[in-house]
Structures are given as C-alpha cells and as structure tokens.
Amino acid sequence: MRVLAETLSASIMGVEGLPVRVEVDVAFGLPALTIVGLAGSQVQEARERVRSALRNSGFEVPARRITINLSPADLPKDGTGYDLPIAVGILAASGQLRDLDRLRDTALVGELGLDGGVRPVPGTMALAAASYGAGIPSLIVAGGATGEAAAVTGLRVHGAASLGEAVGHLAGVRDLPLAEPTQLPAIVATRRGPDLAEVAGQALARRGLEIALAGHHNLALCGPPGIGKTLLLRCAADLMPPLEDDEAIEVSRIYSVAGLLDRRAPVLRERPFRSPHHTISTQALVGGGPRVRPGEASLAHRGILLLDETLQFRSDALDALREPLEGGSVTIARVEGALTMPARFTLLAAFNPCPCGWRGSRQRECICEDATARRYMARLSGPLRDRIDLWVTMLPPAPGNATSTDGVEPSQAVAVRIGKAWRRQLERQGSANGDLPAGALDSDRGFGAAANVILAQRARRFRMSPRRIHRAARVARTIADLAGATEVAREHVDEALTYRGAVDS
Amino acid sequence: MIGVGAKGPVAAAAGLASAQPRLDRDHGGWTGIELTELDREAEAPYWIAISLVPGVGPVGFARLLRRFGSARAAWAAGPALLEALPRVPADAAPALARLRREGATRVASRITASTRRCDGMIVTALDPAYPGALGAADPRPPVLYLAGDPASMARPCVAIVGTRRASGYGRSCAAEIAEELARAGVTVVSGLAIGIDAEAHQAAVTAGGLSVAVLPSPLDRIYPPRHRGLASRLVATGGALISELAPGHAPGKPDFARRNRIIAGLARAVVVVEAPDRSGALLTAAAAIDHGREVFAVPGPIDAIGSRGCNRLIADHQATILTSAGALLHRIGAEAGGRPVSVTSLSDTEAMVLHALLQRPGSIEELIGRTPMPTGSLASTLTLLEARGLVESYGGATFHPTLTARRIGRPSGLDS
What we know:
The complex is a heterodimer of chains A (about 500) and B (about 425). Chain A has about 500 residues and is of the alpha/beta class. Chain A is built from 20 helices and 16 strands. Chain A has 2 domains: about 5-170, 2-Layer Sandwich (Ribosomal Protein S5, domain 2), CATH 3.30.230; about 195-400, 3-Layer(aba) Sandwich (Rossmann fold). In chain A, the strands form 5 sheets. In chain A, strands 11-12-15-10-16 form a 5-stranded parallel beta sheet. In chain A, strands 1-2-4-3 form a 4-stranded mixed beta sheet. In chain A, strands 5-8-9 form a 3-stranded parallel beta sheet, sandwiched between helices. In chain A, strand 6 (about 110) and strand 7 form a beta hairpin. The longest helix of chain A is centred in the last third of the chain and has 19 residues, at about 410-430. Chain B is an alpha/beta fold and about 425 residues long. Chain B is built from 19 helices and 12 strands. In chain B, the strands form 2 sheets. In chain B, strands 1-2-6-5-4-3-7-8-9 form a 9-stranded mixed beta sheet, sandwiched between helices. In chain B, helix 9 (about 170-185) links the parallel strand 3 and strand 4. Chain B is elongated and about 80 Å long. The interface of A and B includes residues 359, 360, 457, 462 and 498 of A.
C-alpha cells in the first residue's frame, strides 16, 4: 500500500504569506511520523498534537511509516497552522477521507488541540491572502479567525470548531456555513492620546507637528526637559486621518502576522501610533530574529513612529532606521535570502539638546562639557539628520509670557485641517507629499516656476544641499495644501525654510 | 584633547584670584628695562632659546633681563639662570640642559624653520614688527609667533570676547559690534574660540575689516581644529594669527590664560559680550583691567545665566556698560564707518514683524503675543526677512534684527 495525498496551506515570510503544499505519504514500514521541508520545532511538535487530535476525533492513525513534506522544501517554516492540513492529509492518504474534490480547492490553516479542536493562529489574514492569491478559492480556518480571513475580498471562508467539522465539510457530509465577508469598520473618533488643548504655548512646535502629520514629513523637536515635547507629540495619535481602505487591509495584515489583531475587530481603521521605549533592541525596532517578525518600524507602517528621547536609543538601532526612512521598507538578510517588510512611517523625534538638557537655555546653566554635548548630538548621524524634514527648537517661555492654555486650538480643529490637506494630496497624486520621490514636484503638482525660483534663491542664501532643497519643496507643498492653495507660493516656501534647522557652525 | 569644557573656566576662575598679584607691576618688571640698548640681531637666538625653557614666561623673562642684562648673558650663566625665576617647574632643568647641548643658534634656526613651515614668523619684543600695544604692556611675551600681516595690529585694536556657549542674543551682539568696529577701521581681536569669538572674527572679515586671532595653541596646531578655515580666512583678508607657543616645540594643552593676557595686552579696549559666572572671558577682562585697558560689558537680561558675568562686571563698576557699538567707537576715538547699503521695500506685514523685532528680539513664541498673525505667516515672514539680510535666526529658534535692519530703523508709518 502506498498512498500519496496533498493538502494546501500557507506560510509566513516576514509579513507576506506564501502558499505551501502539504504532501503526505503513507508507506509500509515501521510505524513512524516524519515531517520534512525545513520544519521548525513548532512544526515538529505537530506530530504529537495531530496524533492525539486524530485519535480523539474518532479517526485512526495508521500504524505505518508516514512522511510529511512541506513544499517548497527550501523555505523555512514555523508555527502551528500546519496541524490541520497535516491531519487532513493523513486522513486522505490513509483513505479515511475518500472524497478529495473539495480538498483540491480548499486551503487549511489551524492549530489542533489534543481534543481535536481547531484554534486560530497569528497571521491568518496574510495566510488567507496568500492562498487566495495562489488561486485557491476556499479556506478553512478556526471558527474564531474567520473575521480576519474573510477580510480578503473574494475568498470563501469557512470556520471549523473541530477537526471533525472540517473533515465533515470536506467530505461533503455536513457543510460549514460560509463566513460573511468582513466589512471595513465604520470610522469612529476615539481618543488615544492627550488633546492639543492641554498643551500651553509652543505655537511653532504645534505648527511643525501639523505640517508633519498632514504631509507625512519627519519632525524633530529639540528642547530642554519638561517643556512639553512628549505631551505635544502624544497628541499626534488623534490628529491623523483614518487609514484608507487599501491601507487598512495592508496594515491589518502586518498586525495579524504580529499577533496583535483583536479578532473581534480584525480590520484596523486608525493609523498606527507606535512609541517604543528607548531601550529597544535593533531587532525589535526594525524586525528580525530567528523567526522574522515585524518590528516597531513595520508596525508603524502608514502611521507614526514616535521616538521619545531619540538620542537615548542605541545608535545601531537609530542607524537601522535609515533604510525605512528612505525607502519605506525594511530588508532583512537571512541565510535563505533577503526578505522585505513594509515600513513607511512618519518619524516624530524628540530630544534634549545635551545630556543635562539645558544647553542653550537662558534659565539654567548647562553642566555638560562641550565634547560630551557634541558627542551626544552626534548620535543622530548625518544620514539620519538628512532625513528629518522639519526641525523645531523649543524654548521655555520668557518670564512674564503667558503659559496658560487659554485660546489654544483643540485637536479636533487641527485634525480637520490635516484631513483636508491629506485629501488634496490623495486627489492630486495618490500619495502623501512626504512620500513623493525626488523630482516629482513639478508644475502639474502646483510647484511652478515661481516657487522654484524662490526656492533656488533661498537655497543659495542659506547654503542648502540638494537633498535639503528637495525636502523643503515637499514641505512647502504640504503647507500650501494646508492653506488650501493649488499653487505653491512664496510664503509657503519661506515657511518651509523656517523649519530647515540650524547649520552647525 | 579638549580640557576646555569644564576645566577651562574652572581653572580660569581659580586663576582670577591669583592672577592679580602675578600681574602686579612689581612682578611684571618690564617697565624700565631699556630694550633699545640691546643688539636685536645678536640677542634673537637667545630670546628664542630661553623662551622655550619651561617656567620662563613673560614675567620670568623680564627678571632674567634685569638680573643678567641680556638674554645672551643669561644663557651664558647656564643652569644658574633658573635661580632667577619666580617658579621653576620640575622639567625646567633637563629641558634647559637639552637646549644648551643643542646650542642657542641651532635651536633658533630649528624653531625658525618650523615657524616658516606654517607660513609664520618669529617676532621678539626687540623687533619693530612686535605689535605696538603689546610692546607697551607689562608683562609682555618676549617672543611671539605670528602668521599674517603684523600691520593689522598697528591699527587701533579692540578685543571682543565671550562665552563659547553663546546665545542668539550674544552672537547677534558680537556680530553687530564687530561689524561696526570693522567698518570704522578698527582691528577686531579675539581668541578664535567657538561661540562669541568666532562670531566676532567672522563678522569683522565679512564686513571687509581686519581681525586678529590670538591662539591658545601653536600656529601648527590651530585650536579649535574646526576653526582652521576661519583662521586661514583671517590671514587671507589681511589679519593675523598670534601665538606665544613655538610651533613644533610646544605640544600640550592649549594655554588659555596666556592667550587671554595677550588679547588684553593687544587691545585698546576689551568688550565682554556674553559671559556666565565662571567664564574665561572674565579672566581676559581681569587682565585688561590690570593692563589698564578699558573694559566694556554688554548687559543681558537679569535672568540669563549666560550674561551673569557681564552683569556683575557692570554692577561692580569693573566694566563700562555697552549700549551701542557707536558709543564704544566714540569712547576709543574712532569714527563710525560707512552708512547703510540699501533699503528694501517692505510690505506692511514685513514691516510689522521687523518693527516688533527691533523693539525686542526673541523667539517666534514671544513674537506671537506681539503680532496679530498666525504662526505660519509669522514664520514665513521671518524667513523672508532673513533671506533679505534684515533678520538673523539662531537655530530657527530666536530671531534678531541685523545691523542693516537697525540702520533702516523704525519703518515709517508705524506707531511704536
């Protein structure tokens, strides 16, 4: 007796799913169960789970030599989602499941309990997208994971509570109900951070934040401790417009892989707002590890990455941000090849001007040695510095100046302006100004000859590098968008240059 | 190595107390020595050689001249010359023995060669090229190493000194005073340090004037290294670099105390622009007072840490309060230079913002309360004014009107 069966499943590479074929061969020989195809330890443990689940679901484990191959065999695999396809494959190969019609166009993803129950696995959304992308029209997942899987438009998703139910459906004995396609959740305004109305003064920093969020430009705030850098930047969470439909699916998939999705509301609508602590490792920041997982940079995709006390971060971690800041993605080199994860975020940085924090302050003396202060600022390496579009130096209010919050704009009003500016950008060019490649700003996009002449003049006067000029142009475009202007005018360029930052003397 | 950070000012503060007795007339001792009787050519090698002995400073050298009559005679006295010094460091005797083995003439030609290599020259107090004001100072360095044009110091010199941690206010004041002095034909002297010093040098040469930097290091190792470019610009525009340390011979820490005394000796007046409580600039002020130079201090807000030293100089009547560069010129008897260049036509908003800045410079934050404009327009207007050379920004945080803007004065049609 020699029977070969195949079931379909999928694996995660970075944040992308890849279709995987589970081949089961039942042959004569000493009873054994072997899994090959670069199967990691979690997959190896599937042997025990599958054995018990089969037995406890009333099936029998053939006392033969069973070989399971996960194909493509050169792709490393881990996770518990292969339990269900392996179990079904054994049933098919041993003749316990006879009707193989449905098996040919149904992919299976699920972890098995010893009692035969099917449990959800992380990354279900990415796995569902991958199997559908590979031309497999149906998918069986754990009952609790249907919402995530059904977010993939067009895919027929069935939720199975147990191995028995899944087999019953595949055999055509008792059909599992088709899961309702997951609707994008309605946009509801929720509060995640403080309100701008709580921030006293700091008009320039507020304005900088508004521009940064409206056009996806990277912002740096530098100032003494206690001046409100953190409070202000935390307001950003509630100022961003919601994710567009396609963005929502894209971001949710990343969160699905990271196991951070709420299964009851599997599609995210709010822009990510991530603020990792400064002790974070490089791996946790940009992703990596033996099983590559998305890092904070990818979790902030299409949203905000706030690095409070930026200069306290490990310098190798900061340097690792250069790639996503430039290209909007992270590439992780593995022995098996490089894999790429999306990471297009808006960087909000906040730091003190020196280790003690009081350099440049009028009120208190800085106690740092010059060399120490220089080394401290040098942690922000040149290439990283170059990728910051807006610089704001925050000063304590002069004595006698009001520090009250009277008459300051609440978050709501600012969010409306940002939302409108975002719409204008989408309608004009389909992306944020901050994500435009060099040279993309031309007269078709409202950056005409007049704006170019002014910018060139100013660039000569202020000795700006081509990269800085290009960044200033995009910021000017956003300032014009905030003002509702079709054409970028002189005042927009000039304002953009106010945030160009100090040239080190 | 940079021992400047905390150690510099601390050491300077410690030196402030002890500096007074050491600079005392009795100890200075150059007054009354008839240098004209000495043979310049014959003496020079001995002056150079002796000045290289550790412990022989401006004061010690004068003692030697008094005791032995000439440097040549002092050299001939051998190790006995050390006995005449007020303070003999441990390495003085071996160093003197080494120099004597080499011979004064060969030492002098070796040092001359290393000075030439950095385009410099050696000037002793016997030379006619020795800077005039310094030649009347007591004590005065016996040997100077000089690059650039010594004639730049034949003009009236005013020193501008201040903290390395300069605020926007300090920088703007330093630049304004330096520019005004340079236009009036006064040579601006400073110490090439980061902050106020650099600002003053820069503004003076930009205005087409002359500027002299007194180095705390030898000519072959410009300190701080990041101002090498500025140093060569000073020389290229007709100014000079001076050092008391021999190139190629004197490695070691930059000597700020000696530099400060030379600055004070060179200048007719010393302006302390911005100095916190323990600043090296205060040591220069103390040396200037000792040399009988006039000291001016730029007042600062009473809550500004960076201006405490200046405010104290004024409060203690050690310095004259400086209210404008013009007043300073009047005081030292020079005429204010050329008049404004061109008046750019300003729009109403531009005039309003400039007007507000002329009343009181400050941050955007402070201006917001005083101009009825949205933050964005205010920022935009400030950058425009900056591009037109009417406003200067420091780190995009604080804004100051430039000298040109001050000359235009208050735009007409606006009430104050």
